[in-house]
Protein backbone atom coordinates (compact mmCIF):
# COMPACT_ATOMS: atom_id res chain seq x y z
CA UNK A 1 0.00 0.00 0.00
CA UNK A 2 0.89 3.66 0.13
CA UNK A 3 2.15 5.70 3.08
CA UNK A 4 -0.25 8.51 3.98
CA UNK A 5 -0.20 11.54 6.23
CA UNK A 6 -3.57 13.06 7.07
CA UNK A 7 -4.08 16.27 8.96
CA UNK A 8 -6.93 18.71 9.46
CA UNK A 9 -6.42 22.34 10.42
CA UNK A 10 -10.14 22.96 10.84
CA UNK A 11 -11.62 23.17 7.37
CA UNK A 12 -10.84 19.87 5.60
CA UNK A 13 -8.62 16.82 5.83
CA UNK A 14 -5.45 17.13 3.77
CA UNK A 15 -4.16 13.78 2.50
CA UNK A 16 -0.54 13.37 1.45
CA UNK A 17 0.36 10.05 -0.16
CA UNK A 18 3.65 8.64 -1.41
CA UNK A 19 4.04 8.33 -5.17
CA UNK A 20 5.14 4.70 -5.00
CA UNK A 21 3.47 1.85 -3.09
CA UNK A 22 5.37 0.20 -0.26
CA UNK A 23 5.46 -3.58 -0.07
CA UNK A 24 5.61 -5.14 3.41
CA UNK A 25 7.40 -8.22 2.06
CA UNK A 26 10.34 -6.04 1.08
CA UNK A 27 12.64 -6.88 4.09
CA UNK A 28 14.32 -3.43 4.00
CA UNK A 29 13.81 -0.50 6.36
CA UNK A 30 12.37 2.70 4.92
CA UNK A 31 12.91 6.21 6.25
CA UNK A 32 9.67 8.16 6.43
CA UNK A 33 9.55 11.78 7.53
CA UNK A 34 6.27 13.60 7.94
CA UNK A 35 5.32 16.93 9.39
CA UNK A 36 3.81 20.33 9.01
CA UNK A 37 5.12 23.89 8.91
CA UNK A 38 2.31 26.44 9.09
CA UNK A 39 -0.40 25.20 6.75
CA UNK A 40 1.92 23.08 4.57
CA UNK A 41 2.31 19.38 5.27
CA UNK A 42 5.12 17.19 3.99
CA UNK A 43 5.66 13.47 3.59
CA UNK A 44 9.07 12.11 2.62
CA UNK A 45 9.75 8.48 1.74
CA UNK A 46 13.47 7.75 1.34
CA UNK A 47 14.16 11.26 0.01
CA UNK A 48 11.14 11.60 -2.30
CA UNK A 49 9.07 14.47 -0.94
CA UNK A 50 5.34 15.23 -1.31
CA UNK A 51 3.91 18.51 -0.01
CA UNK A 52 0.46 20.07 0.09
CA UNK A 53 -0.99 23.18 1.67
CA UNK A 54 -4.18 23.46 3.63
CA UNK A 55 -6.48 26.43 3.06
CA UNK A 56 -4.74 29.79 3.55
CA UNK A 57 -5.26 31.19 7.01
CA UNK A 58 -5.66 27.73 8.56
CA UNK A 59 -2.68 26.95 10.83
CA UNK A 60 -4.02 25.54 14.11
CA UNK A 61 -3.74 21.82 14.74
CA UNK A 62 -5.54 20.21 17.68
CA UNK A 63 -2.77 18.34 19.50
CA UNK A 64 -4.86 17.39 22.52
CA UNK A 65 -6.29 14.31 20.80
CA UNK A 66 -4.70 10.86 20.53
CA UNK A 67 -1.86 10.22 18.08
CA UNK A 68 -2.09 6.96 16.13
CA UNK A 69 0.85 5.16 14.53
CA UNK A 70 0.16 2.36 12.06
CA UNK A 71 -3.62 2.45 12.20
CA UNK A 72 -6.69 2.94 14.34
CA UNK A 73 -8.06 0.46 16.88
CA UNK A 74 -11.56 1.26 15.61
CA UNK A 75 -12.76 3.36 12.70
CA UNK A 76 -15.59 4.58 14.95
CA UNK A 77 -13.05 6.92 16.61
CA UNK A 78 -12.92 9.37 13.71
CA UNK A 79 -15.32 11.36 11.57
CA UNK A 80 -16.47 9.18 8.62
CA UNK A 81 -15.58 11.97 6.14
CA UNK A 82 -11.99 11.86 7.39
CA UNK A 83 -11.48 8.23 6.40
CA UNK A 84 -13.48 8.16 3.18
CA UNK A 85 -11.69 5.92 0.64
CA UNK A 86 -9.02 4.96 3.19
CA UNK A 87 -7.48 1.51 2.91
CA UNK A 88 -7.59 -0.18 6.29
CA UNK A 89 -4.87 -2.14 7.98
CA UNK A 90 -1.12 -1.95 8.33
CA UNK A 91 1.24 -4.87 8.00
CA UNK A 92 4.90 -4.35 8.77
CA UNK A 93 7.24 -3.06 11.43
CA UNK A 94 7.78 0.39 12.86
CA UNK A 95 11.17 0.70 14.51
CA UNK A 96 11.44 4.35 15.56
CA UNK A 97 9.06 7.29 15.80
CA UNK A 98 10.17 10.83 16.67
CA UNK A 99 7.74 13.68 17.34
CA UNK A 100 9.25 17.16 17.64
CA UNK A 101 12.69 15.58 18.08
CA UNK A 102 11.57 13.32 20.94
CA UNK A 103 11.55 9.55 20.46
CA UNK A 104 8.28 7.82 21.29
CA UNK A 105 8.65 4.60 23.24
CA UNK A 106 7.28 1.86 21.02
CA UNK A 107 6.64 -0.62 23.79
CA UNK A 108 3.84 -1.57 26.15
CA UNK A 109 4.86 1.06 28.72
CA UNK A 110 5.16 3.86 26.17
CA UNK A 111 1.84 3.29 24.40
CA UNK A 112 -1.55 4.28 25.73
CA UNK A 113 -2.96 1.18 24.05
CA UNK A 114 -2.39 -1.03 21.05
CA UNK A 115 -3.73 -3.94 19.11
CA UNK A 116 -2.11 -6.67 17.02
CA UNK A 117 1.35 -5.52 18.07
CA UNK A 118 4.40 -7.73 18.45
CA UNK A 119 8.16 -7.53 18.26
CA UNK A 120 9.31 -7.34 14.66
CA UNK A 121 12.35 -9.55 14.91
CA UNK A 122 10.66 -12.11 17.17
CA UNK A 123 13.37 -12.23 19.85
CA UNK A 124 13.23 -11.03 23.47
CA UNK A 125 16.07 -8.61 22.71
CA UNK A 126 14.22 -6.89 19.89
CA UNK A 127 15.57 -3.61 18.55
CA UNK A 128 17.70 -1.46 20.88
CA UNK A 129 16.27 -2.94 24.08
CA UNK A 130 19.43 -2.13 26.06
CA UNK A 131 20.23 1.57 26.25
CA UNK A 132 23.59 3.35 26.49
CA UNK A 133 25.55 0.70 24.53
CA UNK A 134 24.38 -2.13 26.77
CA UNK A 135 24.51 -5.64 25.29
CA UNK A 136 21.35 -7.74 25.24
CA UNK A 137 21.47 -11.41 26.19
CA UNK A 138 18.51 -13.77 25.66
CA UNK A 139 17.61 -15.84 28.73
CA UNK A 140 14.86 -18.32 27.82
CA UNK A 141 11.85 -16.13 26.87
CA UNK A 142 13.26 -13.02 28.59
CA UNK A 143 16.37 -10.87 28.28
CA UNK A 144 19.12 -9.39 30.40
CA UNK A 145 21.22 -6.33 29.63
CA UNK A 146 24.96 -6.31 30.26
CA UNK A 147 25.52 -2.64 31.09
CA UNK A 148 28.67 -0.54 30.67
CA UNK A 149 30.34 0.43 33.97
CA UNK A 150 28.56 3.78 34.37
CA UNK A 151 25.03 2.42 33.75
CA UNK A 152 22.62 0.12 35.59
CA UNK A 153 18.97 -0.98 35.56
CA UNK A 154 16.94 -3.53 33.59
CA UNK A 155 17.76 -1.76 30.31
CA UNK A 156 20.90 0.21 31.35
CA UNK A 157 18.81 3.37 31.61
CA UNK A 158 20.04 4.56 35.05
CA UNK A 159 23.35 6.37 35.55
CA UNK A 160 25.36 5.31 38.60
CA UNK A 161 26.32 8.94 39.18
What is the second-level CATH architecture of one domain?
Ribbon
Strand content of the residues, in percent?
25-35%
Q: Which regions contain 5 or more consecutive residues with pLDDT less than 50?
A: none
Side by side, the strands of the main sheet go 3-4-5
Helical segment count:
0
- Report the CATH topology name of one domain: Laminin
InterPro entries: ConA-like_dom_sf (IPR013320), EGF (IPR000742), Laminin_G (IPR001791), Neurexin-related_CASP (IPR050372)
Protein name: EGF-like domain-containing protein
Keywords: Disulfide bond, EGF-like domain
Pfam family, one: Laminin_G_1
Write structural notes for this entry.
This is EGF-like domain-containing protein. Keywords: Disulfide bond, EGF-like domain. It holds the Pfam family Laminin_G_1. The strands form 5 sheets. Strands 3-4-5 form a 3-stranded antiparallel beta sheet, with no helix packed on it. Strands 1-2 form a two-stranded antiparallel sheet. A hairpin with a 2-residue loop joins strand 8 and strand 9. The mean pLDDT is 78. With 161 residues, it is mainly beta. The chain has a domain of 43 residues: Laminin (Ribbon), CATH 2.10.25. The N and C termini lie far apart (48 Å). It is elongated, with a radius of gyration of 19 Å. It is built from no helices and 11 strands.
